[in-house]
Amino acid sequence: MLLLGKNTQKSVLIAGLAACLLAAPAQAEEIWVSNEKDDTISVIDVATMEVIRTLPTGERPRGIVFSHDYSVLYICASDSDTVQVMDPVSGEILHDLPSGEDPEQFVLHPDNRHLYIANEDDAITTVVDVVTRTVVAQIDVGIEPEGMAVSPDGKYVITTSETTNMAHWIDTQTQELVANTLVDSRPRHAEFTKNGTQLWVSAEIGGTLSVFDVETKAKEVTLEFAVKGVHPDRVQPVGFEFTEDEKTAFVALGPANHVAVVNADTYEVEEYILVGRRVWHMAFNADKSLLFTTNGVSGDVTVIDVASRKAIKTIKVGRFPWGAALRP
Amino acid sequence: MFLRTVLALCLSASAATADVSVVIHYLRQDIEQPPVLSNLDPIPEDLGLRGAELALKENTTTGRFLGQTYTMEVTHVPPGGDLPAAARSALALTDLIVLDAPAEALLAVADLPEAANALIFNASAPDDSLRGADCRANLLHSLPSNAMRTDALAQFLVQRRWDDLALIAGTHPDDIAFADALHGSLTKFGLRLRSEKTWAFDADMRRTASQEVPLFTQDLRDHDILLIADEIHDFGRYIAYNTWDPRPVAGSEGLVPVTWSHVVEQWGAAQLQSRFDKLADRPMRSRDYAAWAAVRSIGEAVTRTGSGDTAALRTFLLGPDFELAGFKGRPMSYRNWNGQLRQPIPLVTDRALVAQAPLEGFLHQTSELDTLGQDRPESACTAF
């Protein structure tokens, strides 16, 4: 899950950070990739598009996210039943956070302090204060919570439940559910867009993307995909990200081995880009000119040139790459 | 010490919000198991039922957010007991039945006047006849048919170009039915059965099964793989490594086409496996999966229609909008010409998933899943 550049506030943050970096020792942009079946993270140097470091993690690392100041990396070590906190400079695990069982994905609230964690085996979303390292709340959600999103204003956190087939809306003030909206089968990923006025949710088995109006929480549009030469059953949308102007979405289609390019205004699919096998999640580089997708089965990362919409390079990483995050 | 927040059941306008209370009856006819040579694999007494219980929990979780409740009644009829009577009492309280019984008993229940408007899920009988000439409009099948399983194996043999085959079949009716399905699949996919023998461990075989096997298999004609039809798991386990020619085995032993197995871990299956394990304290088996799929089908239909009306549920289940996420990588749906749940068939060994049918390259004009089992054009079912 990538939290960068979702709103102006963060862009300012990035600009500010870039300024700081001028003074600090030069550090290249990196894409960090969790390898689910290797218990490692591969660090890709964006300039050379090569793996420059491989760091050991807990068991079955899946979701990864940096703190907003990039001082630490949070890692869902699912089979270790913990969220690990890593120093990205040394690659050392600093400490663990209580996470509930089987943490799969999470999202960091704009306050940079509260992690909302989907506990896949327990039908619970756990809220952890990363400063006090305590569990603030646990919220009962549907079966197999997975996708996590937070609205830019921090008001709502979304958990999608894969077997209950819902997007659960959590009010971050009260840590209670305020709405539960049905989506198609196996919702995997959620993102707010258009200044937080829309919520998009992908449904892997349904083969669709649902667009909700945040104000009314009503479904506005259902997007479908059709990849030439690929059976519809194998078109399974999972992770997706928006370009800086929020006019275009890139959607990973799982075992269809393609990324769809969707016009976020007209909801038309403009293109399908062939990538590695079972493409799941993705992250942009800092200026969002390049997109890095994790391809689980082929164990590699595809680099897509955003302007030309072409795959330009494949980078071998560990076994079953899952999550991706930018470290500018 | 953790604060668990109270559920707020605020519902959005888009979700189905009607209060619905669904009662499902899980009805089982216990049967006497035939004696087998090995004591290694006892059949769990709660086989099937645990799958239904897990699905009920999942339905209940979803229902909490939608104002829908689910309850399940369970009845076990002892061997030789009066199943129709038990079915009548069940039908007096609900139209939704998950039935675990042999084919004949299933039909006896489906044909009760009280069952005319019921929706019965066959979660136990693999007989192809139930999907063909003996189909019933009130009977859906969450367990794959024998032909679906054997077609899956045949696709694999075609893909590997293991065209020449031999078959050893047992004498139990289940073995014979599975062997018949194998015959059909080999013909359908253009494979050659070059020899066939019946394993009847009688007075002529006075040593242990494993000692008999080399001699027994000596006269089989050249084959790439040896097929075994031993659905009651009597002699089949002693065949591998004891054959005259060194050949792999498949069918009821070795490489087995199954509804479900503990080795399935892709497509989110690991989560289902661990939920089941936690509930039942044993791995999930095919019959558990079939019962799970039946109860989840009901839940999915209730969720999407917002209705507990049996006729409405049946229409939705057989319609184009129904899909069940079955942790086998593809959406599952019901064939609207015979009530069979379309589903992928994993091909497994004890330790790994080898492949999953439909295999790549086996195409179909409507659904690749329909390359497995009876397809619409050849279906003898007229009840739908």
A few lines on this structure:
In chain A, a hairpin with a 4-residue loop joins strand 14 (166-171) and strand 15 (176-182). The longest helix of chain A is centred in the first third of the chain and has 16 residues, at 8-23. Chain A has one helix at residues 8-23, and strands at 30-35, 40-45, 50-56, 61-66, 73-77, 82-86, 93-97, 103-108, 114-119, 124-129, 134-140, 145-150, 156-161, 166-171, 176-182, 187-193, 198-203, 208-213, 218-224, 240-242, 248-252, 258-263, 269-274, 279-284, 290-295, 300-305, 310-316, 321-327.
Polypeptide structure, described:
The complex is a heterodimer of chains A (about 325) and B (about 375). With about 325 residues, chain A is mainly β. Chain A has one helix at about 10-25; strands at about 30-35, 40-45, 50-55, 60-65, 75, 80-85, 95, 105-110, 115-120, 125-130, 135-140, 145-150, 155-160, 165-170, 175-180, 185-195, 200-205, 210-215, 220-225, 240, 250, 260-265, 270-275, 280-285, 290-295, 300-305, 310-315, 320-325. In chain A, the strands form seven sheets. In chain A, strands 3-2-1-28 form a four-stranded antiparallel sheet, with no helix packed on it. In chain A, strands 4-5-6-7 form a four-stranded antiparallel sheet, with no helix packed on it. Chain A has a single domain (about 10-230, about 320-325), classed as 7 Propeller (Methylamine Dehydrogenase, Chain H), CATH 2.130.10.10. The model of chain A is unreliable at about 1-10 and about 15-25 (pLDDT under 50). Chain A contains one helix and 28 strands. By secondary structure, chain B is α/β, with parallel strands linked by helices. Chain B has two domains: about 20-145 and about 260-345, Rossmann fold; about 145-255, Rossmann fold, CATH 3.40.50.1970. Helix content of chain B is about 30%, strand content about 20%. Chain B has nine helices and 14 strands. Chain B has helices at about 50-65, 85-95, 105-110, 145-160, 175-190, 210-220, 270-280, 285-305, 310-315, and strands at about 20-30, 70-75, 95-100, 120, 140, 165-170, 190-200, 225-230, 250, 255, 325, 330, 345-350, 355. In chain B, the strands form four sheets. Chain B has a five-stranded parallel sheet with strand order 2-1-3-4-5, with helices on both faces. In chain B, helix 1 (about 50-65) runs parallel beside helix 8 (about 285-305) and helix 8 (about 285-305) packs across helix 9. The interface of A and B includes residues 138, 174, 180, 205 and 219 of A. Chain A: InterPro entries: Host-pathogen_enzymatic-act, N2O_reductase_N, PQQ_b_propeller, WD40/YVTN_repeat-like_dom_sf, YVTN_b-propeller_repeat. Chain A: This is PQQ-dependent catabolism-associated beta-propeller protein. Chain A: Keywords: Signal. Chain A: It holds the Pfam family Cytochrom_D1. Chain B: This is Amino acid/amide ABC transporter substrate-binding protein, HAAT family (TC 3.A.1.4.-). Chain B: InterPro entries: ABC_transptr_sub-bd_PQQ, BCAA_transport, Peripla_BP_I.
